[in-house]
Amino acid sequence: MVDWSDDRIAALSDQDLKNLLANAERKSAADVIAQCKAEMEKRDAAKPRKASKPRTELKEFEHDMSAQLAVRKAALQQEFTAADQAMAQLNSQKTSLSGFSNDLVQANLS
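^ thats the sequence. predicted structure below, dont judge the formating
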């Protein structure tokens, strides 16, 4: 079996390090697995991270419009619900008046 020192593992390319890790996992070599994972974590920590970009003027406009549309949507939904309830009430009154009208016609015919 090959002696894998930390320096030797550090000298491997990323692909070779991944291959070594896969082989160590296949052979259940816990010490080599730990060394490979530690080296991968070191390399990941050393990679530069992308800084978040400030919103562009267009993205800011899109964000503002989205918020305004959400408010408008809520208002329209409330308005629709109120109109729907009013129409249901009017239909109920229409049915009652129609029945009352029919009763009056029947009473006058008798």
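Residues 52-110 form one domain.
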